[in-house]
Amino acid sequence: MSEIQSADNSLWRFALAFYSRPGVAPLCLRLQSEQGLAVNRVIFCLWLARQQQGVVAELFSDKALQHWHYERLLPLRALRYSVREERQQDNRLEAAYEQLKQAELACEKTELQMLYDLATANDLCPALSLPADDLARANLEVYLQTVQGQWSGLLQTLLDLYTETGI
Fold it and tell me: Are 65 and 107 within 8 A, CB to CB?
């Protein structure tokens, strides 16, 4: 994420700062590959907790957000993964791979902007007065319900890193 310039919103700045913390990036990628979780949505849940906001499951069903994630971001990621494998056999693909990587990061940045806009434009993220760590877990559990996911040791480790960072 750090290769793209910071957007002018607190979610993007939080995402950059948190993702760059030691251990966070590999853990997020494992959550993505092993549990099928969307890293942006996980980070969004944590950011909301820092803002003293909860999340309502309906937010994750927003049509534009779903379309962007499933019809734009994920196919681009799949293409990048494919080229990543092919470039091992053909080094001429390196520049194309790097451009796909930048395009995917730009799509992730757009998705974070969409999440930020949803959080600030409606009542799907109510203000709550709970400790940030408890609120972070509650937000993650709401997200997990929307993807039929379960709490895991990986998520607990990420939550522990979140607690330690104080970002």
Answer: no
Convert the pLDDT of each residue in 111-160 to its tens digit. Answer: 999 999 999 987 788 888 888 899 999 999 999 999 999 999 999 999 99
Q: Would you say how long the chain is, in residues?
A: 167
Residue 4, pLDDT above cutoff 90? no
> What backbone phi and psi angles, to 5 degrees, belong to 51?
-90, 5
Three-class SS state of 127:
strand
CB within 8 A of 58, min separation 6: which ones?
A: 124
Nearest-10 Cα torsion for 26, 28, 34, 38: -150
Helices 24-35, 39-50: crossing angle, 10 deg rounding: 130
3-state secondary structure of 167: coil
0.85 surpassed by pTM: yes
DSSP labels, 8-75: SSHHHHHHHHHHTSTTHHHHHHHHHHHH---HHHHHHHHHHHHTTB---GGGGG-HHHHHIIIIIIHH
Task: Please enumerate, as own/partner, the contacts of 155-159 that have beta carbons within 8 Å and a separation of 24 or more.
Answer: 155/31, 155/35, 155/42, 157/27, 158/24, 158/27, 158/28, 158/31, 158/42, 159/133
